[in-house]
Every structure is written in C-alpha cells, then in structure tokens.
Amino acid sequence: MGDWKILLIAVRLPRSYDGPSPYMIKKTIIRDSIARFLAQIGLTSPVRRGRGKLSIATFHRVLPETQRQTYPFPGLAVTPEELDAFLTYLKQHFDCGSLSTQHTRYLSGETTSRPLLAITFDDAQYDNYSNARPVLARHGIKASFFVPVVAVERQELLWHDRFGFALRALLNQEQGGPAQLTDILSAAGMPTSDPYNLVGRVVQASKGLTLEARLRLVEQVAEAAGAAEAPAYARLMTFAELAELAADGHEIGSHSMTHCMMPECDDSALAYEIAESRRVLQDRLGLPIETFCYPNGNSDARTAQAVAQAGYRRAVTTAWGYNGQDSDRFRLRRFDMVSKHVQDAKGQFLPALLDFRMSGFYPGLDT
Length: 367
Description:
The protein is an alpha/beta fold. Helix content is 47%, strand content 12%. It is globular, with a radius of gyration of 21 Å.
C-alpha cells in the first residue's frame, strides 16, 4: 500500500487555511476525484477494508449551525443534519451499535454480512441528549456515551470549554481584552497569534503544560474575561438524562472523574480517575460500567493496566484506525467523524471521501 500513499501525498490538505484560494479549490477537486475513483473501483469499499475488523466512530458535540458558529471548537461539532448523513451512510455499510455490544460480538468471532462498527460520543454534553438522541432513535442505532463524572455532578464546563469560551470573550472585548490576553499568554509561553484559529492553537498548546500550570492559566483567562458566561447549550447532561439514554439501550461509559490526561496522573490520582469514576457511575445509574474513554485520547501502558485492574472490559483512545483480533482491548483505535474532512469542494457530504479517509490510503492517516 506504500505506493498508493506516495502517489496520494500530493493531495493532502493543510490543517487550516485562510479561505478557498483557487489553488486550494483545485487541490480539493483533485482529492475528491481520487476519492470517487477509488470508491468506483471498490478499493476503499467499507466492506472490503473493514472486513474482519472492528471500527469505532467518534462524535463530540451535535449543534445546530447557529450554535456551532458560537462554539470555540467548531471542528468538534456536527449539526443534527450532518449526524443524520453520517449515520445514514454508516448504517448502510456497517452493522452499527454500542461499543460494548459490538466489541463483545467481535471478540466472539461472530460472522456478519457487514463489518461491525460502534458509535461513540465523548464528554456527555447536553446536546448529545437533546440533538443526537432523536437522530439515533430515527435510525434505530444504539451508541456509547462517555461521562466525565465530576463535571456532570457539579454541572461545570470541562476545562477546555471553559478555557475556549473565556479566550473568545477576551478576544471580543473592545476595551483592552486582546492586549490583556496577549500579556497572559506571553507570560505562560503560549502562542499569541494565529491567522486561522488562535483559540484552538492556544488550547492545544496548553496541553503541553503541567496539570497545575494548565489549570492556573485557565483560571487567569477566565478571571480576566470577567462575567462572560457560556451559552446555555454548552452544559453537560445530568445523571437523570444519562439514565434516560441508558433506558433507551445506549451504553454509558466513564470518561474519568475530572477529564485530566491520564499519563500526567500519579498512581493515586490514576486510581481515583479510573476506578472511582466507575464506582460512582455504577452507584448513580445502577448499571454496569464496562468501557473507559481516555480524555484527549492520552494513554500509555501504565494507564491501560490501571483500566484493566479497575474492572473495565475495554478502553478507547483517539488513535486513528481499525481494530483487529490482536488489538489491545484497553487501547482501541477510533475514527473521528469531522464534517469538514468529508465535504467536497461545494461543502457537501462526500461518502467516497469518508471511505478514502478510513481506508488506510489517505496520506497521514494510518489504520
């Protein structure tokens, strides 16, 4: 497959760019043409590429377009209409269900006419309940929802959302907000400018700080932003809403206690994040919690061992790709479903492009 990847390197798009220049439009058209050609000859067929493997699709927020435009990380959100398009196509080509169900079926060696695929949602955001739940119901698909326990208990935004909304608020302040933000970021060694996405770049860079330094920076920016509040849609689900999802037949899994990155935890904190989150969820919801989802996808051998020792049956990362019978069940790979990555030059969902990205041929995305 190496020759294909060498040939396709030329169509890999930059991570971000300032508007659709004629050059970029041309590259997009070439990329789309390659995707359609590979689909037409069957080389990227989901049945062909996914046969004998377990696929896991990841979603985060599900927001109407008007709300997505106000969210600090629009790439993490799909609209209900986009989710419907994803599920329509995935259901046509895969046998879809929750991760606990699909992983159990896969390990049992069950033979299916379509490859097995699990649908997952990270972070337990309220929009998953209000917007994703009815779309899943229309398709008759069960999914897995991963819960950051403390944030749900306290009804507090996850740190990256709080940071993102505070950054946006400062940038939009007319009286000295941007200058104050520049001073704070400079002192913390963070980037202070980006022609495409300063908020996303700063939040990503902050993940390289120690836990204490990162949280201190979030507090500084939030304090400087003053009374700016996140919109109502940004809240997390309640335990009652999670219980309704479970009653629908969806899986509830743990996303840790505080959504910190697992490798940065000492052994005591690791036990708290992993084992305690399972205990709380089982007590509050009265059902078994079998799946763990690493915040930010970060894991290593130590964290995987801690997940196993806590009694989970599986855990998922954000590493891209399929899972085989020999895959580490405590470090499973997933496919992140990002709308803009599977849209053609006209902004329309292009199934052939999704196939291309999942196939293992798309440059930079290994499976």
